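Entry 14. Structure prediction run on the chain below.
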Amino acid sequence: MTTPVPLSEIHDVDHEVDVLVVGYGCAGAAAAMEARRAGASVIVLERASGPGGSSAQSGGELYLGGGTAVQRACGFDDDANNMYSYLEAALGPHVDAEKLRLYCDGSVEHFEWFRACGVAFNESLYDAPTWMPPSKDGLMWLGENAWPYNELARAVPRGHRPATESWAGHAVMAALTATCDALGVETHTDTKAQALVVDGDRVVGVVARRFGETVAYRARSVVLTTGGFVDNEEMLAAHAPVLLGHGKVSDGYDDGSGIEMAAALGAATRRMGFVEAAYTAVPAMVCRGMLVNAHGSRFINEDVYPGLFSHAALHQPGPCWVILDEQGLEEVPSADAWGVRPTYAAETLAELEAELGMPEGALQDTVAAYNREAEAGADPLFHKDARWIRKLEGPWAAIDPRLGFVPDGSKSTGFSGFTLGGLSTDVDGRVRRVGGGFVPGLYAAGRASSGMHGEGYISGTSLGDGTFFGRRAGTHAATVH
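Output returned:
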């Protein structure tokens, strides 16, 4: 049920509150927190049995910059304009320039907001390409030092990591929920919102289900932070079919329910076809060798942010392979190998081509061309950084990303993704109508909304964008009557 319910049909209101937040991931926590600080009473609805959602299961990177304390401690000079120049290119084309400008200008303050919530960051840098550091370093590169971005902006790392090894989303959410609890935010778990309640054209609450019972909420404002729609096959088929058949980066509840509830009363959506995809190729291996498509051809500089080589691979004739020589494989630190071992090995490239089903001579030609330039420490075709360039010599290994990071004999497409499009909102989270104007009383943030992203993505911009604009949505929802 997503059809809006008129207030006149609600005979018994179970709960009344100033601001009702639907969904308790990072965006919901930020909205609830700031609404409470603005003096509003706040209830957060969460369909699961506890807060966290996809945010808690994420890597925990926070894309922050402009001159944070961690950046300065690591010896990097950054500013909001430099940060904007990188993100405009990396998140584009078609970024939301107004949101991106605000995010960059407010990034240092947002970093301090996280610290005030109890998120700790070590003042050290992990200086190598990776999906996430196998360490507690507080700063990491997210493609800022790779071509072409290092020519568009001064290369400065901005991937801020909580002081936790590996996956750190749980640490971010633990700090945010603890702050919400301390502020007196009320949480209703195991409660799934089903439809918005309207009084005329204004949203005034939600009808939900909890343990088989209907629960009615009356609110002055409703903030939707219910996540994206990667778990909804019908919505994917209609809006983002490129992800059909691939894995899903979610907690299993990113079903687009908030987007559908709002769209049912005329809310506008934006850029629903934009997605992020991750390919299970190990960056420490990719940058020491090469990433090639099924035709044996390179298609990108392998030292870029892994999400960018993943997105490029998604649109290549597949499968794509990681090709390494023996020296390259031996140079990969064990902690950075993620348990991955070669799928195929051969003394010659001709043998490897045959094993991989590539056209005869294709991979040989690719490696020969690469090696001619590598002898001079250059990569004029794709501009890989000289740090990772050397002549490749056999014996040879090929890694099949379709087997995953911890091979167990099963095989997938190698890709997992999530959606970036959602409800069209302004910088304060107000949800726009299809015909213009805004839906009174309705706000959205996080992946339920279309944030600052264009067609590109960088790790840390989901948690960063979701919390930054979640804060603004919560404040506005609490102060507008």
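The radius of gyration is 23 Å.
Filed with the rest of this week's runs.
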